[in-house]
Amino acid sequence: MNFYHVKRHRVNSLGRGTAGDITIHATDVQVSDPIIERFSQAPSGITVAVGQNSIGQGGKINLTADNLRVFNGGQITSSTEGNGVAGNVNLQVKNITVEGISQPLSNGQILPSNITATSTTTSDAGSVSLVANQLNVLNNGQISVSNTGGGYSGNLLVNANQIKLEQGGSLISEVSAGDRGNITLNTDVLLMRYGSKINTNATDTATGGNIRINAPIIIGLENSDITANAIEGAGGNIDITTQGLFGLEFRDQLTPESDITASSQFGVSGTVQINNFGVDPNSGLVELPANVTDPSQQIATGCADTSSNSFIATGRGGIPQNPSQELRSDRTWSDVRDISAFRQTQPVQAKISTTPETPTETFTQATSWHRNAQGKIELVADKPSTNMQKALTCAAVPKS
User: Fold this and answer.
1) What is the pTM of this model?
2) What is the C-alpha separation between 99 and 141, in angstroms, rounded?
């Protein structure tokens, strides 16, 4: 189903009465290339409207499809210019793409491709509700709710698995008085790039709409902004619940970076709150064993006599690093450390004890046996010819 050039689907309320609804069930729907209508001077497209000086409620737009593409300035619009509330726009589409702008129209306008519910009077505007697997708003395309005539604006609600805003694609709420104009996004991934926007801006004394985003992953790059600003009224509030926020940062004012702002030029600024997405801090923790390890089972035992042992030398020193090399008698100790840190500026006085130390008698393991003069057998050990320092792990057993 294509709506382009002179083809259009429009329902008006003129005089008194309620405008009818537009209901579309199709596989693929394309809306593009609007023209200015001769009598209403409004752009063509899929439109329900309350006309000027009319009294009555606007109809609804209900569209169900697999694919919806709004491009080249195409319009899906619910509006009121009279004394009546505009209808709502309800879309249930697997894949929605809103992209691009129109060629200059006969009245000189250049329109962005748009899905919108709007009012230019004190009557309330309708709301826009989208349910989709994938929503793409690209190349200055827009999805918007607005009231520039002093009444209440509608709300914008999007439930989608993925939302991509790119190259100036925008989700916009605008109000000049009254209240509402909130934007709520529920998605798995929100991707904003190249100057894309999510705005709830209020002019005059109106209060800025609120922005609520629930998305595990939010990425905003290349001067893409989330703003809830006002001029004389209070700024709106921004509430973001996510597990990962990348590229976007809260700032008091807009910058060339990707910003989150909720300010008011002359009124009270709104608030920005970023919440964690229900992560349990105890999840993923490993329960450690409660039993303390016995250190005696982790310490090496002593070296027994006549057992095979080893000695390892590492680093620089006075012996060859390779045991197959010969030991030269002229080899000297080579120590390249800087010993300036070990120099002492004051003389060290050694304290010599006058009490002689009592040598500790130790047991030595027997290595042989013989008969003594009485004919008894005695266990004996070979006495080393020199006093060698014991290895670190070969502590002698003190005599009890």
Assistant:
1) 0.68
2) 4
Q: Which residues pair with 43 in a beta bridge?
A: 36
Rounded distance between C-alpha atoms, residue 100 and residue 32, angstroms? 10
**Model confidence over 154-190: pLDDT tens digits?**
999 999 999 999 999 999 999 887 667 999 999 999 9
Spatial contact of 145 and 202, defined as CB atoms under 8 Å apart: no
* Token pair belonging to 151: 């009444």
Distant-in-sequence, close-in-space partners of 369: CB < 8 Å, separation ≥ 6: 377, 378, 379, 380
User: Is the pLDDT score of 9 beyond 70?
Assistant: no
Q: Where are the domains of the chain?
A: 2-276
At 240, give phi and psi (nearest 5°).
-120, 125
Environment class of 193 (CB within 10 Å of its CB; exposed 0-12, middle 13-18, buried 19+): buried
DSSP 238-307: EEEEESEEES-EE-SS--SS-EEE--BSSS----EEEEE-S--TTTTPPPPP-SPP-GGGSSPPPPPTTS
The pLDDT of residue 163 is 98
Give the whole-angstrom CA distance, residue 122 versus residue 244.
41
Cα dist. 1→7, 27, 30, 257, 269 in Å? Answer: 11, 8, 6, 41, 46
Per-residue pLDDT tens digits for 253-289:
899 999 999 988 888 888 999 998 665 656 666 777 7
CB 125 within 8 A of CB 97: no
89 and 126 Cβ atoms separated by less than 8 Å: yes
All residues at 6 or more sequence positions from 62 whose CB lies less than 8 Å from its CB, including other chains: 21, 22, 23, 24, 90
Q: Is 224 exposed, middle or buried (0-12, 13-18, 19+ CB in 10 A)?
A: buried
Q: Is the pLDDT of residue 208 over 60?
A: yes
Tell me how far apart the alpha carbons of residues 156 and 183 are, in angstroms, rounded to a whole number: 5
Cβ 100 vs Cβ 166: under 8 Å:
no
